[in-house]
């Protein structure tokens, strides 16, 4: 402080290495690679928000999460592109019961076949995307009890809806509104 008062700018830079070290330590603590393995086993919800700049860190360590039953893939701050096939492949070992793909607009026009690897899926939410038809449902359709396809330009539910034998809840809000636009 004394040197700063005297106008010696060189001494002011001595704090920069310390600040850089603190910043590096903070960023390392925030990395998903450093999460306690027991926590990863007990966690049952994973949210992947593609609008967060550091989301790839989470995607890279998805294999470490073993108890995920609810997976939310979203674009919280508007439409951004997403590689759903890659994310769903990385989630292949999850005991997934609920899957939500939300707010991708024109960037999600189909649901990839990888969704069929989740045979215990009971809830599928596909909100605010660009889906023109229901996803292929070879494996998960028999257990699905809730399907929400709100805010998608789906023209028809037939014949695909017939494969959802245990469906108790179907949400279709704003489908026709988008079609008429």
Can you describe this structure?
It is a single chain. This protein has 2 domains: 1-30; 37-180, Ribonuclease Inhibitor (Leucine-rich repeat, LRR (right-handed beta-alpha superhelix)). Mean pLDDT is 80; it is low at 177-181. The longest helix is centred in the first third of the chain and has 16 residues, at 15-30. Helices cover 27% and strands 17% of the residues. The chain has helices at 2-5, 9-12, 15-30, 37-42, 55-60, 84-90, 175-180, and strands at 45-49, 70-74, 98-105, 123-129, 146-148, 169-171. It has a 6-stranded parallel sheet with strand order 1-2-3-4-5-6.
Task: Summarize the helices and strands and which ones pair or pack.
Blueprint lengths: L1 H4 L3 H4 L2 H16 L6 H6 L2 E5 L5 H6 L9 E5 L9 H7 L7 E8 L17 E7 L16 E3 L20 E3 L3 H6 L1
Parallel strand pairs: 1-2, 2-3, 3-4, 4-5, 5-6
């Amino acid at each position: 402080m004394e040197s700063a008062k005297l106008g010696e700018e060189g001494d002011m830079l001595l704090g920069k290495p310390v600040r850089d070290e603190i910043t590096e330590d903070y960023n390392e603590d925030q990395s998903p690679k450093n999460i306690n393995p027991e926590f990863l086993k007990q966690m049952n919800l994973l949210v992947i928000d593609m609008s967060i700049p550091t989301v790839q860190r989470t995607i890279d360590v998805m294999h470490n999460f073993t108890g995920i039953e609810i997976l939310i893939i979203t674009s919280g701050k508007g439409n951004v592109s997403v590689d759903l096939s890659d994310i769903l492949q990385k989630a292949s070992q999850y005991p997934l019961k609920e899957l939500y793909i939300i707010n991708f607009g024109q960037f999600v026009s189909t649901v990839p076949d990888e969704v069929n690897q989740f045979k215990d899926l009971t809830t599928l939410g596909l909100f605010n995307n660009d889906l023109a038809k229901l996803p292929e449902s070879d494996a998960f359709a028999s257990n699905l009890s809730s399907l929400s396809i709100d805010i998608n330009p789906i023209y028809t539910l037939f014949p695909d809806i017939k494969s959802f034998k245990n469906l108790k809840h179907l949400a279709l809000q704003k489908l026709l509104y988008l079609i008429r636009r």
